[in-house]
Amino acid sequence: MLSVLTSDISTASAQRTAGRGASRPLPLDDIADGGRTYSRAMRELDHLVLAGPHLPTLVADFERLTGVRPAPGGRHSGLGTANHLVGLGGAAYLELIGPDPDGDEPERPRPFGIDALTEATLVTWAIRPIEFDERIATARSGDYEPGSVRSMSRRTADGDLLRWRLTVPDDGHGLVPFLIDWGSTPHPASGGLPEVALTSLSATHPSPSDVLRALDVLGADLEVVPGTRAGLRAVVHGLYGPVVLS
Questions:
Q1: Euclidean distance between CA atoms 54 and 117, whole angstroms
Q2: Which ranges of the chain does DSSP label H, i.e. alpha helix?
Q3: What is the DSSP string of 25-72?
Q4: Are 172 and 195 within 8 A, CB to CB?
Q5: Model confidence over 33-88: pLDDT tens digits?
Q6: Cα–Cα distance, 172 to 154 (Å, whole number)
Q7: Do 87 and 195 meet the contact criterion of CB atoms below 8 Å apart?
Q8: Which of 35, 73, 160, 238 is within CB 3.0–4.6 Å of 83 for a Cys-Cys bond?
Q9: pTM (predicted TM-score)
Q10: Domains and CATH numbers, the chain
């Protein structure tokens, strides 16, 4: 969902329950300031994934609310998807992904449950550990399975080939991030993307402790609060006020 937040997010944040058992803050206010020392959460945040059933509409709605036009990313061969990208400050970005408007129907379901979506949804997020393989081994030794590792690639709008590896977790809700390794490929956020400021990232879950344990084992940080449903929530700056991605 893409919507303008009318309440004061700083006030709402201050009213959240503090404490290890209920939530863990993710200090996103430092992300765009290169003069500060980043926490591990900020250094490792790679990207957020905002998926929708119709990519041109997703891009147009994002531009309407933020005043920022996402840049074309490229097409994912064989997956039936394409994306647009927006920088979030630092080495992080937002991926807007949906069915490839110019592609054929894929032989298998599109990733991120895109075929079942009826509106824009913040489906998951990714972290970029320096030691990709070691982090996977550490997670598995802590009884958390981050998923199988897949090698992927896509052509950019300029025709350059990007290659990366990622894990494919099977948690069913996207709150625990997948891991990504860009190897020698230039990072997408290094290419002069249009930017919006990311001010917060959090999640809700009926049983936050279950998610927090997986985050702990994986070495990831995310605020998780009790809620009736599992879901991610990010807030970025917009033309008319903070814009919520959920």
A1: 9
A2: 9-15, 40-44, 55-66, 132-141, 208-218
A3: ---GGGTT-TTSPPPHHHHHEEEEEEE-S-HHHHHHHHHHHHS--PEE
A4: no
A5: 333 333 445 569 999 999 999 999 999 999 999 999 999 999 898 899 999 999 99
A6: 25
A7: yes
A8: 73
A9: 0.85
A10: 2-245 (3.10.180.10)
